[in-house]
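Tokens as discussed.
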């Protein structure tokens, strides 16, 4: 079902992200990339990387080779085209990857990222365990995801935006209201900040922390493999 949703919206995904977040997702992603500590000798695995925003940000920040991965080939096709236009394709390996079963050896990458993708994974615990497995000792996992709003006054406005406005915009812009209804519902079903932090600890990640963005509408979680 997730594959079908993202195949349906792939061509309009970047436009809809701007509409859904009023452009704020670009600020969130800049903050996220800035926290990665990119270095030329480091290798990135970008899970559920879709159209490539995080991978491109990593490379432009001075990071080393990157694997842009996603379970959906339609999304990766858009990402590959964007990489070619940006002159970055030579530094990127593009792979169809199920984040619950990563086809990489243990201790093989320095950073694992997943931005707005973990909520679409069926077995989130498996994703976290796999992320830790492929990290080198001293490597770090980062997750950017919609989270639980922590400012009470924002909640009713956010609910109206998510469940009333977004599906209508999805129909107008991407000709697909149902996929955007699913996206809104998947956000509400995702674990809150503390629950996700504990899931990361249970997967073996250490020094887990998180940072709220825009009052908790989104959050960045991180953890180390030590």
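Sequence:
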């Amino acid at each position: 079902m997730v594959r079908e949703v993202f195949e349906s919206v792939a061509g309009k995904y970047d436009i809809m992200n701007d509409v859904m977040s009023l452009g704020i997702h670009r600020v969130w992603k800049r903050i996220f990339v800035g926290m990665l500590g990119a270095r030329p000798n480091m290798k990135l695995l970008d899970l559920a990387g879709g159209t490539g925003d995080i991978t491109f940000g990593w490379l432009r920040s001075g990071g080393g080779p990157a694997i842009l991965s996603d379970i959906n080939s339609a999304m990766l096709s858009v990402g590959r085209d964007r990489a070619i236009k940006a002159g970055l394709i030579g530094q990127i390996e593009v792979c169809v990857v199920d984040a619950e079963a990563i086809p990489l050896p243990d201790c093989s990458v320095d950073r694992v990222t997943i931005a707005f993708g973990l909520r679409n994974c069926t077995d989130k615990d498996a994703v976290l365990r796999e992320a830790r497995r492929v990290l080198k000792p001293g490597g770090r996992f980062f997750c950017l995801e919609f989270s639980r709003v922590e400012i009470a006054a924002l909640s009713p406005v956010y609910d109206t935006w998510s469940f009333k406005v977004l599906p209508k915009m999805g129909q107008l812009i991407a000709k697909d209201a149902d996929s955007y209804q699913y996206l809104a519902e998947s956000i509400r079903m995702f674990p809150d900040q503390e629950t996700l932090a504990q899931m990361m600890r249970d997967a073996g990640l250490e020094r887990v922390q998180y940072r709220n963005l825009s009052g908790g509408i989104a959050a960045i979680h991180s953890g180390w493999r030590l």
